[in-house]
Structures are given as C-alpha cells and as structure tokens.
Amino acid sequence: MTDAISIGAAAEPTVSTDHPPIASAPSPDQELAIGVRDLSKRYRLEPADARAPQAGLLQPFAWLLRRGTAAPGKDFWALHGVTFDIARGERVGLIGRNGAGKTTLLKILSRIVAPTRGEARLRGRLTSLLEVGTGFNDALTGRENVFVNASMHGVGTAETRARFEEIVEFSGVDRRFIDMRVKHYSKGMRVRLAFSVAAHLDADILLLDEVFAVGDLAFQEKCFERVEGMVKTKRTVIFVSHDLSSVTRFCERAIWLEQGRILLDGPSKEVIAAYADEVRRTSRARRANPGPLAASPPAPAPGLSTHAEAPPAFLGAGAVITEPPWVEMVTAGVIDGHGRSLKVATVDQKVGIEFVYDVLRGGKVILPGVSLYTADDFLMFSAVYTDREHMRRPKEPGRYRSVAWIPPHLFNVGLVRVTVSLTTPASGKLERHTLIPTAASFEVCEAPLGVHSARGSYREVQGVVRPLLDWETIRLG
Amino acid sequence: MNTLDVGTGALSRSGQDIVIRPPGAFAHLDLVELWRYRATLWRKVTQKVRIQYDDMWLGLFWAVARPIIMVLVFWAFRDLSQAQTGVQIPYVLYVYSGLVAWFYFTEVSTSVAMSLFRDAGLIQKVYFPRLISPLSHLFGETYTLALASIPLVVMMISFGEYPGWNLLLLPAVLVQLMLLAFGVGTIFSSLILVSRDWERMLQVSLSFGLWVSPVLYSVAMIPERYARLYLANPIGGSLLALRAALFDSLDFPWGAWAYASVFSVVLAGIGLVMFQRSERNLADRL
C-alpha cells in the first residue's frame, strides 16, 4: 500500500504540488469504514436551449428529435478519480474551495447522487447531519415525524421507540406539544426536534457540515456537546468546513479537494497549513494582478503603508537602522516546544519565536524583539527582551540564538505574521540594527477535541487574542 | 473477518457493506434493501392515510361517498331512461364494484405519477430506496379501496349475489390492477418531471378512460366487431376479471385477463426503468 503522499498527480497547473510527502492512508490492519476507488462524477451542462418551454408535451422526447443536430452539452467533472480509505473511528476533515467537489463527494457517499465512475464502499450505518429536518411533514404530529424521520435513516420502529424519550428530552420540545401537529410548532421547535432525531441515530459513519448547530445559543451549545460526544465514541466522521480551525478541532486527518481531485491527504495540521498557504498565495496573486473586471486597487492612503512596501513601525518611530551593519540576522522562525519548526499551532500550544543572529562588532547591547500581526495587519503586540541582566551587558561578537516563548492560550485562531528585529536601547531613541517584516508566519487553529480552551462551547470568539482566563464567581447576596 | 482489502485497489465483498456504483442502464430492483426499509415504507403509507383522513369515520365516508353518489346517479339515469346496459347482475352491484376499482386505478396512477414531483425536495436531500415513494402511494390508496369495499360486501349480502370459487383469483386480479396502475403512474411520473403538461394529459386520459371501460355498462353493449379493439384497453380485462371473481354468475374472462396481465407486467417494467432514470436526473440537478 502507499503509505505516503496522495498529492494529486494530475493537479492543475495553478496548484502547487511541492508539498512535502505526508503519510495518509490508514495502516492495513485497521478495519475500514469507507473505501473509495476512482470515484468520479460528471455533470452535463445542458446547452441553454435544451429547457426551452415551447416543447411542452413533446419535451420528454426532445432528445429523439434533437439527436445529432444540437450541440452536445458541456461536461463538467465535479469529482475526478478520487481514491481514499478511511479507517473505522477516523475523523476526517474535507477542505477545499467552493466548487472543489466536497458537496458532490458527500452527496455520493450519502447516496443522494450516483457516481459516473468508480466505487465507494461503506461499512455500517451512515447518517448525515447535512440536511437536518428535511422530510418533516406539517400534517403529522411531532411524535409521528420523529418516527418517519428515523425510519428514513433506516432506524426501525422498535429502536426509535426505545430512544423516543431521549430524543424529546434533548430537543427541549414541551411534552404537551409532542402529539400536536408540527404545523403548529415554532420554527425553533421544529429544527430542534429534527436535529435531535438526527443526533440520536446510532450511526457508524457521520457526515457533518459546518453548520450543524441550530437553534438558539443554549441549544447550539448542546448540539456541540452532542456532536463532540458522538465524535469521541469511535465513530467515523467526515466533516466539511470552510473554517479551518474547526477542522483541526474535530479531525486528525484532512483531505484537500481541488477541482474534483484530491490534492493533499494527511494529518490535518499539515494539510491545513498547505491549504492556508495556497489560499494566501492565490489571494495575494489576485490582489497583485487583478483581472480585467476588477477595479484598480485603491491607492494607499498617505502615511499608511502595507508591509509589502515598507516595514511597519516597530517600537515607535524614530528608530534608525545602523550603517554599517552591527549585527546580521541568520534565521528567524517559529518553533514548537520541542524545537521543531512550526507552521500550524493549536491554541493550547506553546509557540517559540526563534532568532539566530551574528553580532559582528562588540560593545553594544543587542535586544531581540518581536511584533505579531494578524492576517489583516493589525498589531497584536510587540515584545522585547526585558531581562535586566541581558539589557545591561553588551554582546561580544559571535553567533547567538534567542527564543521568545509565547504561552499557550494567548492567540485567537487565524494567521499570525511575525516581525523580528534587533535593536539597541540608546538614550532617547532606539537604535535598530535589523528588522525583518515577515520573518515567519503561522496558523493558529482550534485545540483538538477534549482540550479546554477559551472558546468554551461557542463556535468562535471575536478578538485579536483569546486568552484563557481564570474566572471566579461568588454569590454576594 | 471481513476487512476491506486496502492497497490492491479492490474491496472485499461483504453482505453488510453498502456499495455505491454507477447505475446500470436498466432498472435495478433491490428487494433486499426494500425489505430493510420496510419501516420507512410502512411509515410513509400510514402518513399518507393519516394525512388523507383526519378522522377515521369521516374517512370511511369520503372513501365511500364518491362511488355511492355516482351509483345513485347512474341508477336513477338507467331507470328513468330505460337505457340498456347489458348487465346480468343487479346494476347497483355492477356499477359500484366497477367504480370502486376504477377510482382505485385512477387514484393510484395519479398519485404515483405525482410522487417524484412531490418528493423531489426529499430525493435531493435524503437517501431512501426511491421506490418507497410510489409504493407508499400504491399501498396508501389500497386502504381507501378496502374502506370502499365494505358497502360492497353489505350490498352483495343484501342482493344475494355471492362469489364462487373464482374468488380465489381475486388477489391475483388485484395485484394485476396494482401493477397496471403502478406502470401508468411511474411512466407519467417521469414525463411530468420534464413537463407538467403530462399531468393534464393523464387527467384527461383518465376521465376519458371511464367511458371506454366497462365500468358503467357491460361489454355486451359493444358490437361484436369492435369487441377486440375495446378490450385492447387492459382495464377492460381487469374489470371483467374482478367482477367474475366477485360474482359467481359471471364467467371468468381468461383471454382478456391474460392479455391485461401481460400488458401490466410490461408496463410496470417500463415504468420502473423510466422512474429510476428520472429519479437519478432529479438528484443530479444542480
């Protein structure tokens, strides 16, 4: 078996294929839950006149009349030769841009759409929480709808009856309403009951969309808990999301689809790092070279500058860059607690900004400093070495390594850009030796399941940083 | 242990696996799966019945009202006009039994014909064996047929018309009628999906069909040389067979019924293929 790389061999030219090999497929001794071989789906885009209304009664036979004369419809491959295996209990995130084929893949796996080519094999019951509440019938009571809905997912009457109380309990629908027709329900009640049914189906394979949380905040919280509970119990999960941080939260593996093909398949942190990189690259390319229809980019306001042109001010204006150079930066990067280079960090991870620099001449105090910016160039914070001893003693010439450790649970999810500098505090103003505006960048994503974080049970928390605080509540009266 | 065979590209066979493959060109009838989903079918049938009849007893009234009203009208019409109907058994029994079967046929075929259209939203979102949708209508209407048969039994007893051994053929005749209605319904279901005009077409054909089928009058009224043409309508054979199964004094029309049976099986087969194709196209619509 191939234990490495699933980089799309025939990837489109616009997509880079220089990602490192990543171990992907499960080892052979694991039992498979999903096996997909060369799965392809072609949609035929009908020529515009094909649905002309004038045909009326003859419309169904239009293909007979049209045969050979009309231009054939264009083919569009929503999926193209997709092959992967998912072991039982694996949680896999499906990422990719709109139209990459994620929905088509899920639709084929949930047997709503038939593939054009290839094969997929599923072991066990599959439930999708993609379309919660479809099939609820207004004319039936809540109770009847629960049974109908469950049966549509292949759950028998006896099994549904056994779980009925639990389902109603979870939904929070008042027991007095349960034998009332659904048409008298509020929208919230309906959705809650529908989700509750779906969430209580004992599925072996679970298809989740990012918007599986419904109802009010309290119920959403319950949904999350429930889904997390389901996900923890050795269930196979395929999770689709545009929100990369929730993929890392739920999944240990990710599959990146691009134009109907698998571009990358491997540990979610690595796939997401590559994906985030690619998205940034293309959006930068788009900005740099707008299409003919795009408006010309607004001229930067005077006094403001983007990091691409001029370095943003660090520790206030007025710093001067020494000439000739006093120090020279050798490398700067982001590392994890084990000193390994880091591209994606989970929120609960300690992150180090590592500098290696050569001091060329002795006699000056050299202070390493960092500034961290968000993806939209908002300064999160700046920091310099504040150790008194270090601040007083001038550095001898030689090579040095400094690491600034950033404690866990500080960053919010998203991209972090790191600016590093080396300065000397001088009377009145700073003497700056070097400044590297984009020394490194890394992605911060959600902590894996079960890790307590400042997110709590919310889907996201606003803000530049997301510290985990110690809360205390006491009753005063 | 049944593990999927990784790496070789082939997956091992196992009964419990769900295999998803491109569909073949012809109808695919997975009875095993249909059986697994019997709870869904049962739910859909009861759902249909429940929605149709809010109140059980009022339901009985609605099921019976239409044929009874029509029977009364035609009874009065025949008596007042002295019209010939060529019927050998009490006319009320003849018309009522014919109407009950005829309404069953029209109800099944129209609701099956609309099944894809109505369940389109569901089909595009949830998986279930698609045949459940037309089958639920087929069986749901059978409930109405059963209700409407109660007065028939009462009338048969009061008129002293009893069935003979041919009653044993009644289930076969009913199955044939179901197949026929199912075939007509599924064929139209796929046509209606492309153009709603076919819905009107079905309605017009069915209202015309009442007059060219032996519902209100006997086949004996048809001139000898047109009899063969008349019985080209498969409903003719079904209705004759149904009455022969119910009333001992009528002979079983073997030839006409055999023809109707073959016709029904072929039609149901064509309907199945057309239904599955349209259902796939429906899901494929972006």
Architecture overview:
The complex is a heterodimer of chains A (477) and B (286). Chain A is α/β, with parallel strands linked by helices and 477 residues long. Helix content of chain A is 21%, strand content 29%. Chain A has helices at 62-66, 102-109, 142-152, 157-171, 187-199, 217-232, 244-250, 268-288, 388-392; strands spanning 32-45, 74-87, 91-95, 117-123, 126-128, 205-209, 236-240, 253-258, 261-267, 320-321, 327-335, 344-346, 351-359, 367-374, 379-384, 398-406, 414-425, 430-445. In chain A, strands 5-6-7-3-8-9 form a 6-stranded mixed beta sheet, sandwiched between helices. In chain A, strands 10, 12, 14, 15, 17 and 18 form a 6-stranded mixed beta sheet that branches. Chain B has one domain (40-277). In chain B, α2 packs across α6, α7 (170-194) packs parallel to α11 and α10 (234-246) crosses α11 (254-284). Chain B is globular and about 65 Å long. Residues 1-15 of chain B have low confidence and may be disordered. At the A-B interface, β1, α2, β4 and α3 of A face β1, α2, α5, α7 and α8 of B. β4 of chain A pairs antiparallel with β1 of chain B.
The average pLDDT score of chain B comes to 85
**Which architecture of the largest domain in chain A per CATH?**
3-Layer(aba) Sandwich
Stretches of chain B where pLDDT falls below 50 for ≥5 residues?
Answer: 1-15
**Could you give the order of the helices and strands of chain A?**
EHEEHEEHHHEHEHEEHEEEEEEHEEE
Task: Give a short summary of the structure.
The complex is a heterodimer of chains A (477) and B (286). Helix content of chain A is 21%, strand content 29%.
Features:
heterodimer, A: 477 residues, alpha/beta, Rossmann fold, Coagulation Factor XIII, Chain A, domain 1, six-stranded mixed sheet, 18 strands, disordered N terminus, B: 286 residues, mainly alpha, 11 helices, 69% helix
